[in-house]
Amino acid sequence: MKRLVAAFFALTTILALNLFAAQTPVFTLKGMGSPTLHIKESPNGIIIDEYKGKVVLLNFFGKHCPWCLKEIPHLVELQKEYGKDLQIVAIHAQQPMTMAERSEFQKRFKFNYPIYEYTDNEDFVQYISQRSNWSGNLPFSIVFDKKGSAAKIIPGYAPKEDIEAMIKYLIER
Question: What is the pTM of this model?
């Protein structure tokens, strides 16, 4: 009888772990000209397999958002300066860019981090929106520490100095 009870509990535990694993959100972020990213939920944030061990700044921006356009050069500078320990990932969250617009943006800003369209990654955008209570206002950023925990939510424009201070703190931690 003891063996039967032990076997029952072992089987129940295995089934529960498999059920939990099946419910843990997993996303594949895809974008034209950007690497495919594999993202898993963590208890306090997300893990991007390709950027494990780095501070990640997830930035939502729009091509018609003046504050976004003001912020992009700062993000390009920060990626250049801290690229060994930092990865910026951007999601364009307005009407999708045409190939010509994307090319013009690349020439204008010289992006050095990947950009994805929300329309190609709606499941991930909805997931982030629900977890962070993001209402869709732009720009919007979340900074994740090296373990994938959300360290700071930035609703709106933030000066470069403020973003850099947060990044430096998380890199040194």
Answer: 0.86
